[in-house]
Structures are given as C-alpha cells and as structure tokens.
Design brief:
Blueprint (H helix, E strand, L loop, with lengths): L19 E6 L18 E6 L6 E11 L2 E4 L5 E2 L4 E6 L13 E9 L1
Antiparallel strand pairs: 1-7, 2-6, 3-4, 3-5, 3-7
C-alpha cells in the first residue's frame, strides 16, 4: 500500500508450501510513477495475512528495487495463524532519492 491505496498482489497461491519467494513488477500491478513515494512523509508497506491454521510463517524480507538502489524493510514479523503482519519500508531518504520502485521482492518462509 502507498498513499492510501491498497493493491492485492497475491491471493493464497502456493497453499501450505514452505519457502515461498516472489517478485512483482509494480507497473504490471497498475502502479505508475505518480503512485510512488513523492516525499519523506509516505511509506510503503507489505501486509500479509495467514488464512490457514497450523501454517505460521515470517516475512523474511520486503524490498523495492529501482535503478540499482535497494529500499528494504528492517521489519521481519512473524505471521501467526489467521493473523496479519506488516513490514514497512521507511522513506526518510529525502525527495532527491525517494524510492520510485519498479520491482517488489517478497520472501515468505512458512514454518510448519
């Protein structure tokens, strides 16, 4: 989500599989340059919800990559059964190097 806009990027594909690694192109998801963080007051985040029992996991990393720059969340929250977890990318980088991402990388590591 960015600027009050939420976009579903993945909906339960993979079932109960462990070690789920995915990369998404933001422009293919409908984002434009205008959607990307225009100032240090906005942050991107990834929200993951576990929709099954006995399948706890963790967001291993969430990052946005643009022109060789990596903007990465320092959050690595656990995702418990039927709960949500959020990983944030801080955008305190200033307007000159504010992330204008092309790709989002998400790793989800299921434990059990």
């Amino acid at each position: 989500m960015q600027g009050g806009r939420e976009v579903l990027i993945w909906n339960r594909e993979g079932g109960s599989a462990d070690d789920i690694f995915r990369e998404f192109d933001l422009f293919q998801l409908g984002f434009t340059q205008n959607d990307l963080p225009p100032s240090e007051n906005k942050r991107w985040y990834l929200k993951v919800r576990d929709e099954a029992g006995e399948d706890t996991g963790r967001i291993e990393y969430f990052k946005i990559i643009y022109q060789g720059q990596v903007y990465e969340s320092q959050d690595h929250p656990e995702i418990r059964d039927f709960q949500e977890a959020i990983a944030w990318i801080p955008s305190h980088l200033g307007p000159q190097i504010c992330p204008t991402a092309i790709v989002v990388g998400l790793n989800y590591f299921g434990i059990g």
